[in-house]
Design a protein that fits this description.
single chain; mainly alpha; Serine Threonine Protein Phosphatase 5, Tetratricopeptide repeat; 7 helices
C-alpha cells in the first residue's frame, strides 16, 4: 500500500481494493480463456502469494484442474469454500475431483465418443450397402 492509499478513509480504501480485485479477476479470466494459463496464474498470485478472494481462488483451481493438477485444484477450491461456505459450485467442483467423480466424467465422455463412433460406423455401412445395392 502506498502513502496515498494509507491516507484514504477505510471505506474508500476497501472500495478501491475491491475495484482492483475485479479488474485483476477480469484480466486473469481473459488470459485463461485465451489459453495463457501461466499469465493468468501470475496475475492472480502476485508475488507468489495466493489471493484471499474466493472468485480468484476458484479461477486458480480451474486452471490447475485444466492442467491435471487435481490436488492443487482441490486445495484452491477448499480455500474458496472457507471464504464462501455457502457456495455450492465450489463444493461440486471438489466432488468432481474425487476418483469416483473422475470415473463418472470419463464414462460420460466415453459414452459420447462411443455414440459418435457408432453413428459414423452405421452411416458408413449404410453408404456401403447403398453402393453395393446399386452396383449389383
Amino acid at each position: 500500500m502506498n502513502e496515498y492509499e494509507q491516507e484514504l478513509p477505510t471505506e474508500a480504501r476497501t472500495a478501491l481494493q475491491n475495484c482492483f480485485a475485479q479488474i485483476r479477476l477480469a484480466r486473469a479470466t481473459e488470459l485463461a480463456q485465451s489459453g495463457r494459463l501461466l499469465e493468468a496464474e501470475a496475475a492472480l498470485a502476485q508475488n507468489g502469494e495466493l489471493p484471499h478472494n474466493a472468485s480468484e481462488l476458484d479461477l486458480l483451481a480451474r486452471i490447475a484442474a485444466r492442467q491435471g493438477r487435481f490436488d492443487e485444484a482441490r486445495r484452491r477450491w477448499n480455500a474458496a469454500i472457507q471464504i464462501e461456505p455457502g457456495n455450492k459450485i465450489y463444493r461440486q467442483c471438489v466432488e468432481h475431483l474425487t476418483p469416483a467423480g473422475r470415473i463418472v466424467r470419463l464414462i460420460v465422455n466415453s459414452q459420447d465418443t462411443l455414440l459418435n463412433v457408432l453413428v459414423w460406423t452405421t452411416a458408413a455401412f449404410a453408404v456401403a450397402a447403398l453402393i453395393y445395392a446399386f452396383r449389383g
